[in-house]
Predict the structure.
Amino acid sequence: MFDVTVIGAGIVGSLIARKLSSYQLSVAVIEKEPDVGNVTTMANSAIVHSGYDPVPGTLKAKLNALGNKMMDQVCDELDVEMKRIGSLTVALYDEQIPVLQELAERSAINGVPVKILNAEETLKLEPNLSKEVKGSLFAPTAGIVNPFTLSVHAIENAVDNGAKLFLDEKVVLINKDNGFYNIICQSGNTYQTKIVINAAGIYSDEIHKMVEPIDYFLTPRKGEYFILDHYCDDLVKHTIFPLPSEKGKGILVTPSIGGTFLVGPSAEAMASKDDVSTDKFTLDEIKRQALQMVPSIPFNQVIRTFAGSRPTPNTHDFIIRYAKCDNHFITLSGIESPGLASSPAIAEYVVNEFVSKVIDLVPNPNFNPRVKRRAHLNEMSVEERNKFIAENPDYGKIICNCEKVSLGEILFEMNTSVPPKTIKGVKKRTRAGFGKCQGGFCQPLVTKIIAEKFNIPLNQVMFQKHDSFVVRYDIKGEKK
């Protein structure tokens, strides 16, 4: 029995759970994946959007601008890397200049500081842009963030403050009996709760349909990306956008928090929510559009392509509301871009405007908003690093050469309240496997570390999802 149960442990569900844990409530989080932040949260542009783009008066506009302002404090408390590098939305043709002015006017309404730059000013900031650029909209408050640790550390903080996390629990049925919701999972487990918060991301419409018919629909929209190696440090210093269209913000070029570069995404309406494949035709089109803005992109330095799927609602706005049948069921649907930037504000909004109206919220006097800070060796001087390693020898044993991730960092994560139990889980938390070789050298070592930590055979260590085992045979060749 719980006071509140959150379905979905992506970035939105995780931050909602964290906010709920600041009150004297029994809180559960149910997630169908073997780890948190495994779907849309794991495959996006990792941009803290400034908020100039959403239509004024929408929830997107309100929560994007507010979430952007909240992100510094949230990332500080949760020990998450974020940089306010700013963004440039570029006009490549004279007829696009009036659109920049329209976006500037929209920004003013949304309370977002921006400045229109001419061609010379734009190229001074970003000399690798096309010399055909006519001007740009500079948004200094835009930033980049580590979305993996943001979701992981948020749920870790919630658990440290008393919330309960249940992984591998796919919800198949929800019913209400005697004033309580019964959430029935594929495993056979049932969770009873007073309030349900549906934060199931791209599957939120399916969860909502379990309690009532819905009057909206979600279209899975796949976005494909390139990741470029650290090779080109000065390619761009800001996030570079084209002018937005009805499909979204378009193909961007941006540094990532880890020093690589992202190029993408596409925006393909799909029939399947689970289709995260990539294809040559789409990737070639991304390349073509990106090169129009930044002609010098070294696509020979691509180390990975990937795709994610986001839930695009026919309402063209975030859907956050009570179920029509009952105000103890709160649904969040269509949380697409700028969902990441909006997520801290979404959590505040859901708890303050919805949960507080149906249950008494008494502050938790023991609530601690901070997670235990990780050792950031890259921020230390050589002397500090040598002293730290002398006292903590595991931090001197490098497991991932590409990203310089040590055994000590991996073991630290293994001993948190939300430890990684998959290879991808270690990758998301530590960056082991994110580099040029994409785990070619460190993956066997990470597999062994997981097996030893959880006392399981090597052939039971999963890469990411169920049945994604990386070891099939023992050393004698016997099939497992």
Q: What stands out?
A: The mean pLDDT is 95. The radius of gyration is 23 Å.
